[in-house]
Design a protein that fits this description.
Blueprint lengths: L2 E2 L7 E6 L6 H10 L8 E4 L10 H11 L5 E3 L6 H9 L2 H10 L4 H8 L9 H11 L1 H8 L4 E3 L3 E4 L14 H6 L13 E4 L17 E3 L4 E3 L11 E10 L2 E10 L2 E4 L20 E7 L2 E6 L5 E5 L3 E4 L2 E4 L14 E7 L3 E6 L4 E5 L4
Parallel strand pairs: 1-5, 2-3, 3-4, 6-7, 7-9
Antiparallel strand pairs: 2-10, 5-6, 8-9, 10-11, 12-18, 13-14, 14-15, 16-17, 18-19, 19-20
Helix pairs in contact: 3-7
C-alpha cells in the first residue's frame, strides 16, 4: 500500500474532507467556510473526488492545483478508479455497461469536452482521443496514494483491516469496505475515513455529520454528497496546538438555501431505519405518506413513498421514519428535494427531514 507520511509541525490544523463526488463549487465554498489558509493549514482529501456529481473535470483540476502544495494530500477512493478502468482497461462491452449504469460519469464528461457524444462506434479511436486530451488528469488520478499516516492518525478512504501490519490492508478493503464503524482495528492510532455515508448509521442521529467512536478509534466523515437525497460535504478539522488535540466540524449542505418564515414544531421521534438490512410492512397509506412497521424491530412510523422501494420481494426504505423537523422562524433550511406538501432537506442544526412548504 502506498502510504504518505508527512512531517507535521507541532502547531497546525489538518482539514479533512472526503467524498466530494464532483461537487466542485460546494467544495470551494466549504474551504472558504473553514477559513482554509494554504500557508499554514494541511488539507487531506480522503478519496472519491469524482463520479455521481456533475463537475468532474472542474473537480479534478481544482484538486490537482491544490496538490501543488505539499501540505495538500489527496488519496484514492473507489469511485476514482473508474476513470482509469474506462480509459485503459475496460472492453468496449464493459465500458458501455458502465455508461448504462451511470450515464453521466467523469470519462463521458471528458468525452463531451472534446466533442464526443457517444462511444458506440469507432470506440478505440474515440477513447484514445479522450485519453490523449486528458493525459495529465488521468495520470494524476492513477497515481494517488491509498493512505496518509501521522503520529496519531491514519487517513484512508474506507478503512484498514484488523491486523498489526495495517499497511498490508488489501486495496479492495481500503477502497470499498462498507459499514466500517461496525468492525474493529488493532492500530493504536485513530482511523479517519469516508466512503460509507454516516447517515446509514443509527449513531448519526438523523444527520450527515461526522461520527466519532472514541472506543474503537474510528471517525467517519462522509456526508453522503450526491449519494443521499439530503447530503452535505463535511470538513473534519483536527487542530494540534500547545501539545493538545481538538476537533470541530464545518459542513456545507448540497441544496438550495431557504429561510423558515414561521416556527414549526413536530412531536414525532425519529426512528432509525437500516436501509440495507431491514424491510417494511405498510400499515396504512395516507395519500403519499406511508405508516409502516419495521419487520426486524417492530417499530412503527411514517415515511414518504418516494423514499421506499422494493427489492428481494420486500419493501425497503432509505430514510429514517418520522423525519418531520422542528424549526424556528429565521432558521436556515437547505432544500434537497420536495413532495406535494413538503420540502425535504437539511436544517440549520444538521437534522434531516421534512418541513411544510408554507413554512418556508
Amino acid at each position: 500500500m502506498d502510504v504518505i507520511r508527512p512531517d507535521l509541525p507541532q502547531d497546525c490544523r489538518v482539514i479533512c474532507v472526503s467524498d466530494i463526488h464532483a461537487n466542485c463549487g460546494e467544495f470551494k465554498r466549504l474551504l472558504e467556510k473553514c477559513k482554509y489558509n494554504k500557508d499554514n493549514d494541511y488539507l487531506f482529501i480522503l478519496g472519491d473526488i469524482l463520479e455521481k456529481g456533475s463537475f468532474n473535470i472542474d473537480t479534478i483540476r481544482f484538486v490537482m492545483e491544490l496538490c501543488r502544495d505539499p501540505k495538500v494530500i489527496c488519496i484514492k477512493g473507489n469511485n476514482d478508479t473508474m476513470c482509469d478502468r474506462m480509459a485503459f482497461h475496460d472492453s468496449k462491452e464493459r465500458f458501455l455497461d458502465r455508461i448504462k449504469g451511470r450515464p453521466h460519469n467523469a470519462f463521458t464528461e471528458m468525452g463531451k469536452a472534446v466533442g464526443i457524444e457517444n462511444f458506440e462506434d469507432d470506440f478505440e479511436n474515440k477513447r484514445q482521443k479522450v485519453t490523449d486530451a486528458f493525459k495529465d488528469e488521468l495520470e494524476f488520478m492513477k497515481c494517488l496514494p491509498l493512505a496518509v499516516e501521522t503520529k496519531d492518525f491514519i487517513f484512508i478512504h474506507a478503512g484498514i483491516e484488523n491486523r498489526k501490519d495495517w499497511e498490508n490492508t488489501a486495496e479492495k478493503f481500503a477502497l470499498t469496505q462498507p459499514w466500517y464503524l461496525r468492525l474493529e482495528h488493532c492500530s493504536p492510532k485513530t482511523v479517519v475515513c469516508g466512503h460509507y455515508p454516516v447517515y446509514n448509521y443509527r449513531r448519526a442521529n438523523n444527520t450527515c455529520l461526522p461520527i466519532i467512536d472514541y472506543n474503537k478509534r474510528m471517525i467517519d466523515i462522509d456526508g453522503g454528497a450526491s449519494t443521499k437525497w439530503a447530503s452535505q460535504l463535511n470538513a473534519f478539522i483536527i487542530s494540534y496546538f500547545n501539545g493538545k488535540y481538538s476537533c470541530e466540524t464545518v459542513f456545507y449542505p448540497i441544496g438550495e438555501e431557504m429561510t423558515v418564515k414561521k416556527a414549526v414544531r413536530s412531536d414525532r421521534s425519529v426512528v432509525y431505519l437500516d436501509w440495507e438490512n431491514w424491510d417494511l410492512t405498510i400499515i396504512e397509506r395516507q395519500k403519499d405518506i406511508l405508516y409502516v412497521r419495521i419487520n426486524q424491530t417492530g417499530e412503527t412510523g411514517f415515511i414518504h413513498d418516494r423514499h421506499t422501494g422494493e427489492w428481494d420481494g420486500k419493501l425497503h426504505g432509505w430514510i429514517n421514519l418520522n423525519c418531520f423537523l422542528s424549526a424556528d422562524g429565521g432558521d436556515k433550511f437547505y432544500r434537497c428535494g420536495e413532495t406535494e406538501e413538503y420540502f425535504f432537506g437539511i436544517a440549520q442544526n444538521g437534522q434531516i427531514g421534512f418541513l411544510p412548504k408554507n413554512s418556508l
